[in-house]
Structures are given as C-alpha cells and as structure tokens.
Amino acid sequence: MVLVSGVDDAGRGCVIGPLVIAGILVEEKGISSLKSLGVKDSKQLTFRKRLLLVPKIEGVVLKSSYTYILPDEIDKAVLKGKKFQRLNFLEAKAMARVIDQLNPDIAYVDACDVLADRYGCQVEDLLRTKTKVVSEHKADINYPVVSAASILAKVRRDSAIESLKLVYGDFGSGYPHDMKVRLFLAKYFEDNGCFPDAVRKSWKTVRDIIDLNYQRKLI
C-alpha cells in the first residue's frame, strides 16, 4: 500500500492574516476518488463549492494536517534578508512539519520557489520522516492530492479572515490589491499610529502607508 500526500498553501501574498499550509494523506488507489469529487485548484472554485467539497474530501482521505504561519513569524523571516528567499524557507519548514505529521511514502507539493526542484530538496532535507518529495509549479492544478490540499488550506484561511473581521470589521480580502484593505490599513494607522497584530508589517503596502504619514508630518 502506497501512501500519498498533497500539500499546498493559502494566503501567501496577503497583507492581513496567516499563511495556512494544509496537507492530506490518502492511499494511492484513493486518488481516483478525489478526482471523482471534482477537486481543482482552490482558485478555480467558488467559495460555496470549496465549502461543499471540504467534508467530501475529509471523507476520502485517511488524515489531514494544518499549520499556520502568523504575521510576526513572516515579518521576522522577511526582515532577515531577501523576502522570497526567507519566506520560501519558512514555508518549506511548515510544509515539512505537515508532511512529518502525515508520514506518507511520497508527497506532492506546490513549489513556491522559482526553482521547483530546489524547493523540493529543501523540504525533503527538513523532514524527519523518509518521504520522497515531488515539487512542481502548478501542482495544485496537475495533482488531485494537491488540489484537495489547496481547497482545505483556502477554506481554513478564509475562516481565519472571517474571525479577524469580527474584531476589526470588514477590511476586505486581506490582499494588497484590494482597495478596501488599503483603506482599512490607512485609517487604522491614522487613528492608532500602529497596525494590528494580524498585519504583516514587512509588506510594501504597510511600509508605503508609514512613509506617506511621515511625509505628511514634514509638510
């Protein structure tokens, strides 16, 4: 019996909220059952469709695992050096933790590094278990096990964002391109002189707001 895992992230680029890593474990013969559910990369599915698929996926897999990378962890990693190199390593460690918890024979991961093989070697080197790691770009599209993991990660991240909105109000999607997010951050900083703990303060969006306020004070 060959045990297979798929691992993916959600919220990597957002400025508000955690980066969520999800993984699933399934017998190799169970991959066809995931296909029959119609799993796809989470970005290709509606919010409602993702919610409907979660219990169906959990009914097929042997086990699922999650880990959250919080904004302060991301900020510490990003401020150490080049953003994506440091963030890639932080995410590789998180994926390794998830894979160790699942303990598959082979794990498929969606590569966040421009060099997919390098990222796969990095994840494999961080493992405590003897698992072969296959790292590819667009793995969330090409492998049903990764598609399923992407759905679980996305739903968990959406849930985390909704919980934060109960505290801070509706700030939008959490992503920098969202004008609602930008307006929320600007207003919060103007009123409080700081940002909430849920915000990634190393992101350019946040630094731009700080710089703009500093320039206004000089005028």
Architecture of the largest domain in CATH? 2-Layer Sandwich
What is the first-to-last residue Cα distance? 70 Å
Q: What is the topology, as strand order, of the major beta sheet?
A: 3-2-1-4-5
Beta-strand content bin: 15-25%
Main sheet characteristics: 5 strands, mixed
Structural class: alpha/beta
Please give the count of helices.
9
- What coarse outline follows from CA principal-axis ratios? globular
Order of helices and strands: EEHHEHHEHEHHHH
Q: What share of the residues lie within helices?
A: 40-55%
Q: And the CATH topology of the largest domain?
A: Nucleotidyltransferase, domain 5
The CATH class of the largest domain is: Alpha Beta
Low-confidence stretches: none
> What's the rounded overall pLDDT mean?
93
Radius of gyration over alpha carbons? 18 Å
